[in-house]
Design a protein that fits this description.
Layout lengths: L23 E7 L3 H12 L4 E4 L15 E2 L7 H9 L1 H25 L10 E4 L3 H18 L3 E4 L16 E4 L3 E2 L2 H14 L3 E3 L6 E5 L2 E6 L2 E10 L10 H4 L4 E9 L4 H7 L5 E4 L5 E5 L6 E6 L7 H15 L8 E10 L1
């Protein structure tokens, strides 16, 4: 069992950069994950000089450790709660923007010619209680009314068409969701950012940011750099040097396991439509086929605050077997974890 992301098998992390640090830039971007790289790409293509700082190896954080599941984020308040707080129009705009992200990403990958194994498979979310099924039906109806979300309910009697698990009381399918290979996506972004003329410095942590004249001065182990603007894109990896942002972030650690390659007939029965999967438990679990269709990748809350590969593997394997008892004797090939933010 390797204590490293399965994604790195096909997309190994790049060695440390020896690129020289410029003395000045229009914009300094701190963090070279999805957020920082997309920020840098837009700014560099707008004609600005951009330097991206990454404290570690490129992509070793959450951007290449996540499940690669792409879909809208529906706020925990639900449509009714959002409407009560923001009004109907603003709520519809919020949800529509989240739903539209999947098509945006699909078009972006096509235009940029980034091969990230993207597939718009849809997502099945299983109901662990009959009451959960009823709540899912109400939520789907609200989403369809507010922004025409494409989806449908699946009864317990019909759920074999969606999952080989009999643990659920039916569930819901969201058609717009999909999946990709997050490390391949990250590598593609790095290439496009460099092609746009931005400088990316790996293993170059920003130790301090100070206001200086009309701009800012940043200190790193390579020296100092002056920038007109700074974008802090560190998310769940925000350090103590950015305390004003850190106190607004709640970092959570999520973990994943990958099984050894499985029999294709078993996989076809457990995940017959090769969708993205989840369920209604309070502590989120998410699972899917690997892009090559040979393994199951299963994720959920990690144990403790640091790396606990053996404990995480036991916990996630137990959770996986609860959903799919057929996997009771299946070995785990990889286990890893990473930090996300709330």
């Amino acid at each position: 069992m390797k204590p490293a992301p399965f994604w790195w098998e096909q997309a190994p992390r790049e060695a440390a950069s020896e690129t020289e640090q410029p003395a000045t830039a229009d914009v300094a971007v701190v963090g070279a994950g999805f957020t920082g790289l997309n920020t840098a790409l837009v700014l560099a293509r707008a004609g600005l000089s951009v330097v991206v700082f990454e404290a570690g190896i490129l992509g070793e954080g959450a951007s290449t450790r996540n499940g690669g599941m792409v879909g809208p984020s529906f706020h925990k308040l639900g449509i009714a709660g959002l409407t009560a707080q923001y009004g109907k129009q603003k709520t519809n705009e919020i949800v529509a923007e989240s739903v539209g992200f999947v098509d945006f990403l699909k078009d972006f990958l096509k235009v940029e010619n980034i091969n990230a194994d993207f597939a718009q498979t849809g997502r099945f979310r299983g109901a662990l209680k009959s009451a959960h099924y009823d709540a899912m039906a109400r939520e789907l109806a609200s989403l369809q009314q507010s922004c025409n979300v494409s989806g449908h309910m699946v009864s317990r009697q019909d759920q074999a068409s969606e999952t080989g698990s009999d643990r659920f009381y039916g569930g819901v399918v969201y058609d717009m969701d999909g999946g990709l290979h997050p490390a391949k996506y990250h590598d593609g972004l790095v290439q496009r950012v460099r092609q746009a003329g931005a400088v990316i410095l790996s293993q170059t942590p920003v130790e301090q940011v100070q206001k200086s004249g009309n701009g800012f001065q940043l200190a790193t182990p390579k020296g100092k750099i002056t920038a007109q603007q700074v974008a802090i894109c560190t998310n769940g990896y925000t350090g103590s040097q950015f305390q004003q942002f850190r106190r607004r972030i709640l970092p959570l650690r999520s973990a994943m396991i990958a099984t050894e390659p499985l029999d294709e007939k078993l996989l076809a029965r457990l995940m017959p439509k090769a969708r993205m999967y989840g369920d209604s438990r309070r502590i989120v679990a998410y699972y899917r086929l690997s892009p090559d269709g040979q393994r199951i990748l299963f994720g959920g809350r990690a144990t403790g605050r640091g790396e606990n590969p053996e404990k995480n593997a036991r916990q996630l394997r137990s959770s996986m077997v609860e959903i799919y008892p057929d996997l009771a004797d299946t070995p785990v090939s990889h286990v890893w974890s990473g930090r996300l933010q709330l």
